[in-house]
Amino acid sequence: MEARMVDALLLDLSGVLYDGDDVIPGARVAVARVQASGLPVRFITNTSRKTRAQLLAHLRALGFEIEGEQLFTAVDAARQWLLQRNLRPYCLVHRNILGEFDDIDQREPDAVLIADAAEDFNYANMNRAFQLCLEGAPLLGVGYNRYFKSGGEVLMDVGAFIRAVEFASGVEATIVGKPSAEFFHQAMASTTADPQRMLMVGDDVFGDVEGALNAGIPACLVRTGKYRPGDEDRVAEDFPVVDSIVEAVELALV
Ligand SMILES: [Mg+2]
């Protein structure tokens, strides 16, 4: 058996594989190469504007072959968190993904879930979330992501909206997606690899890189997606920075 630097690869989606509807140059071939190599690979995303089925369809439409069991989403993690605790959430989420919570009772909510609701982050909805939290409802958030890049522009992400409700209500959110170590551990646990012999690849220096490092997983930052020069200096740890997933896969498969 050939010696490898890593025993499993964790890949972020947006900004690593694609940017909106544009595939990052070389990403399709790089992912196909990893899948063909037999190296276990998991895809781990905080994206919450699409359902799991829509995400898989989007990936397929862009030419990526990914199995459902390889995909770990913060929306799924939020569902599990709520179901495990028998909570009735007020879902301040994108209308695309409302159906993902259809089987959970949402009458008289006793919890608040904030995902990337985009246009639905209006005063009435934010205020509802705030009022419930002030009355003692736990606050659940998909991630503290600051912004993401799509269709050539940077877009404000969910982090600031979660912070706003935290600030107003004095309730601290539980983050279920990246950078939560528990989320990384769920993806890790689906492989037999030792965390120290995994590699997380992402374009978000906080959510992907710092989050993985804090979970005990080596990480590498790509200069695609939301990456901006100087991002590598925004967290204290040292880690490799590569041009794109193409180079990251080279690192993983040597
Ligand atoms: Mg990303």
Could you please describe the fold and organization of this structure?
The chain has helices spanning 27-37, 52-61, 74-84, 123-134, 159-169, 181-189, 205-214, 245-253; strands spanning 8-11, 18-19, 22-23, 41-45, 71-73, 89-92, 111-114, 139-141, 147-150, 153-156, 174-175, 198-202, 219-222, 241-242. It is an alpha/beta fold and 254 residues long. It has a 6-stranded parallel beta sheet. Strands 6-7-8-11 form a 4-stranded parallel beta sheet, covered by helices on one side. A two-stranded antiparallel ribbon has the order 2-3. α4 links the parallel β7 and β8. α1 (27-37) runs parallel beside α8 (245-253) and α4 crosses α5 (159-169). It binds magnesium ion. The site of magnesium ion has 8 residues, from loops.
Count of helical segments?
8
Rounded to the nearest angstrom, the distance between the terminal CA atoms is 13 Å
Strand content: 15-25%
Which secondary-structure class do the elements indicate?
Answer: alpha/beta
Topology, number of strands: 14
Largest sheet, described in full? 6 strands, parallel
Mean pLDDT: 96
Unreliable runs, pLDDT <50, ≥5 residues?
none
Overall geometry: globular
What's the gyration radius in Å?
18 Å
- SSE string, helix = H, strand = E? EEEHEHEHEEHEEEHEHEHEEH
Determine the fraction of residues in helical runs and give it as a percent range. 25-40%
Catalogue the ligands. Answer: magnesium ion
Spatial order of strands in the largest sheet? 5-4-1-12-13-14
